[in-house]
Specification:
Shape: globular
Number of helices: 12
Helix content: over 70%
Structural class: mainly alpha
Strand order of the largest sheet: 1-2
Largest sheet: 2 strands, antiparallel
Number of strands: 2
Strand content: under 5%
Order of helices and strands: HHHHEHHHHHEHHH
Mean pLDDT: 92
Distance between the termini: 44 Å
Radius of gyration: 20 Å
């Protein structure tokens, strides 16, 4: 495989890493089983695409608008369902993500199955500006390298921000909610408000990931945001470790190297069978990790002793 292929793998790993940071905040640190992350991501991505194409907004102004709308959606879902039991909340978030996807698939404002195209001109201008600088060090021919660099810089910045937040009293309250919600409430903390803030922040991270998905695929269509995206995110948590932001980075890189690296296996199978085989291999690897190191590669076993 070419260097371009592995750069694309790196872009995917970075995007899924940003996406999974929100899941880590919810599931790893707050004890919230959020399965609607793909829905928040779709809202962020489509808001950017529609504002740029239909309303003539700048791409850079449309991004914060997409984040704000995703946060509002997170608040709406949270207010409606955070008082449910954790397993019922998980089902409610799956339902939300599917409502978003089917709405985008059938609504006129989102282009239905035709999707949204032509929103990335400003990003291409930035990418074209970066390539001559990369050419100075012999990397100017790799057209996806600018996106790779920006995605991972944003991922690192968000990871550092979340680690800093986790060290604050706010982060310690989230841990307390995860360990014992009733005890945290007995200490005078508004558990519902903290859960709502955690969910809203995760929705914002999903919107940022959606922005980069839009730049990567250059064409928004509903099936990009199916629930598989969220399940892949949880696979990264199993691999990298719960309650570890560093584990998100490691899990994302290993997952995508494994999933895309299995394309190199040469067999006599058909293309469809070969694709299935790749997922079987990845699934077996995840089962092996779960058996040998249940807390994940960088997870702490003490973080998994109590779950709501």
């Amino acid at each position: 495989m070419s260097i371009d292929f592995w750069i694309n793998v790196g872009v995917l790993a970075g995007i899924y890493g940003i996406f999974t940071l929100g899941l880590q905040l919810n599931a790893g640190f707050t004890g919230l089983l959020n399965f609607g992350q793909a829905g928040f991501m779709a809202i962020g991505a489509y808001t950017v695409g529609i504002l740029v194409v239909d309303r003539g907004w700048s791409l850079w102004l449309a991004l914060p608008a997409g984040i704000v709308l995703a946060v509002l959606a997170g608040l709406f879902v949270g207010i409606a369902s955070l008082r449910l039991r954790s397993d019922h909340f998980a089902i409610a978030t799956i339902a939300f993500a599917e409502i978003v996807r089917y709405t985008l698939q059938n609504a006129a404002f989102s282009g239905g199955n035709q999707g949204v195209l032509g929103f990335d001109a400003e990003w291409r201008a930035v990418s074209d500006w970066m390539l001559p600088w990369l050419a100075v060090i012999g990397l100017g021919s790799y057209t996806q390298l600018p996106l790779f660099i920006v995605v991972w810089l944003v991922f690192i910045a968000l990871l550092l921000m979340l680690r800093a937040l986790q060290a604050t009293p706010w982060g310690r309250v989230l841990r307390g909610i995860r360990e014992d919600e009733d005890a945290t409430a007995a200490l005078g903390k508004d558990v519902f408000a903290y859960k709502l803030q955690s969910l809203a922040l995760a929705a914002a991270l999903a919107a940022v990931a959606g922005f980069f998905v839009a730049l990567n695929v250059t064409y928004l269509y509903p099936t990009v945001f199916d629930p598989t995206f969220t399940f892949f995110g949880y696979a990264l948590l199993v691999l990298g470790g719960f309650a570890s932001y560093g584990g998100v980075a490691l899990g994302s890189v290993l997952f995508w190297i494994l999933l895309e690296g299995t394309r190199l296996i040469e067999t006599s199978l058909s293309a469809g069978q070969q694709a299935s085989l790749r997922f079987v291999i990845v699934g077996l690897f995840l089962l092996l990790i779960s058996r040998l190191r249940p807390q994940g590669l960088l997870g702490n076993v003490n973080e998994m002793k109590v779950r709501p």
